[in-house]
Amino acid sequence: MAMIRFDNVTKNYRSKKGLDGVSLEIEKGEFVFIVGASGAGKTTFIKLIMKELDADEGRIIIDGRDVTKLSSREIPRHRRSIGIVFQDFRLLPQKTVYENVAFAMEIVRARRRQIRKRVPAVLSMVDLSDSAGKYPAELSAGEQQRVAIARAIVNRPGILLADEPTGNLDPDTAWEIMNLLDRINTFGTTVLMVTHAKNIVDKMGKRVVTLEQGRVAGDVRGGRYHAAPHPENGIYFDPAPAPGENRGKR
Amino acid sequence: MIRAFAQAFRQMRRNKAMTVASIFAITAMLFILGLFFSVMVNVESAAEAVKDDYNTIEVYLVDGTTKETIAADQEAVSAWDGVEAVHYRTRAEAMKIMKERWGKSGYLLDGLKDNPLPDSFVITVGSLEKADAIAAKARALKGREDVRYYKDTVGKLLRVTRFIRIASLIAIAVLLVIAVVVVANTIKLTVLNRAREIAVMKYIGATNWFIRGPFLVEGLCLGALSAAIASGVIALLYKRLQAHLNDQIQMILQIPMVDAHTLIINMIWIFMALGISVGIWGTILSMRRFLDT
């Protein structure tokens, strides 16, 4: 069963299309890059998964549950099954590193004992045990992003959404974050990362879904990032696709 | 719950200026409301007291009216259509009542050499439609000196009371709306300050009530604190006013002001309920937009 399934999903805004008849399946434990130019529909895609927006048409199935049919009361529970990381970290500045991570557990009403046990373990995983008492302002950008990742995974979500998580980071730090996300993925978490970082996409060799004007313009496993179709054949060209894997066409 | 309270107090400490400003605004609102309330309660109480006179007709008797005439008149009046009771009030009894009405100033009446009040009949009218006819008949009684019939006066007074009551209710409603808007704006500023935090909480999967909790407690505290201050100020003011004016009012209107203790206790309850409701509603209104997604 797919972890994330979009069935012919359309989302219209007043003046333009956010997504236009998108169908896509992402298996449990996959690592998928969502790429595309600005306005291609990447953010809409993420927001629909989070049920921050409602689809106009189609169905979105997350871990077997039809998100399009969720009532507003069911949304918080749905979101708890998804971890999210943003480009600008979105940490709470008045809380320490420990408190920021613990806060995610307080929200799901975890027991104190459980919080005391799990938060240090997750901080250790992101290599921030020594910074538990520090405030976000005292940390480097890379460290802040690691706190954000720790917060995103502390409740052990099945899916981790990363919206340009390396956008504000220098190349070395960006790779640290990618290694961390890769490690989280190897533990079985489905990772969906929106990015513009061509070098990262190319080097990681993961599945790449390209969006263009709200449509899936390419879906390649072990793919590379192409912001535009090949000038000759109009295909989002992958020079070395794995055998038997599909190529997207316009 | 504990988290909500702790966070609310932290928030209020952090935004001291805003907290003080909104407490001041709500207190001012409740204070004006309290003034209306005090006036309304006193007018209502006066109206209630005067209403008792609405169905009575007092017939003053000429000095020296014989017992036989009095007895005959009383018997005749009792038989009139619409009369419920006739009470013969001696001048001594009338003086006693007046002294009671004058309260603390009643001793002034002790200085009178003679009792200037006349004996009288107090006719209680059963049916108000027949009051005019009874008053007209009473004027034809043999021993009568004067007939005091308060229907018009009481009617006017009741109309004024009704007007004051409606005006007060409108003023109270307007003030309440203003208070809700003030609280809503105050809380909105706090919410705006924390919009990012709220967005993060929503992404993590916090329920609306989890997010709302601390803000509701903040609104509740602002309301309750303002209610306490406003009640205190009004109580102080009313007590002073009562100490200075009660005797004069009692002498002029023959009705005492409403007891400070009763008024204040009721006002505290009402203010607390209003303050807390205003705080909570202000919060709910101001947060609606932020909790939409």
- The strand order across the widest sheet of chain B is 2-3-1-4
- Weakly predicted, low-confidence segments of chain A: 237-250
pLDDT averaged residue by residue of chain A: 87
* Total helical elements of chain B: 9
DSSP strand content of chain A: 15-25%
Q: Radius of gyration of chain A, rounded?
A: 18 Å
Helical percentage of chain B: over 70%
Morphology of chain A: globular
Kindly name the structural category of chain B. alpha+beta
Largest sheet of chain A: 6 strands, mixed
* Global geometry of chain B: elongated
Mean pLDDT of chain B comes to: 81
* Sheet with most strands: strand arrangement of chain A: 6-7-8-3-9-10
Radius of gyration of chain B: 29 Å
Structural class by helix and strand composition of chain A = alpha/beta
Biggest pleated sheet of chain B: 4 strands, antiparallel
Distance between the first and last residues' Cα of chain A: 27 Å
Q: What would you call the quaternary organization?
A: heterodimer
Q: Outline of this structure?
A:
The complex is a heterodimer of chains A (250) and B (293). Chain A is an alpha/beta fold. Chain A has 7 helices and 10 strands.
Outline the secondary-structure elements.
The complex is a heterodimer of chains A (250) and B (293).
Chain A: E1 2-12, E2 17-27, E3 31-35, H1 42-49, E4 57-62, E5 65-66, H2 75-80, E6 82-86, H3 97-107, H4 112-125, H5 141-153, E7 159-163, H6 171-186, E8 190-194, H7 198-204, E9 207-212, E10 215-220
Parallel strand pairs in A: 3-8, 3-9, 6-7, 7-8
Antiparallel strand pairs in A: 1-2, 1-4, 4-5, 9-10
Chain B: H1 2-14, H2 16-54, E1 56-61, H3 67-79, E2 83-89, H4 91-102, E3 120-125, H5 131-139, E4 144-149, H6 151-193, H7 195-204, H8 208-253, H9 260-287
Antiparallel strand pairs in B: 1-3, 1-4, 2-3
Helix pairs in contact in B: 1-8, 2-6, 2-8, 2-9, 6-8, 6-9, 8-9
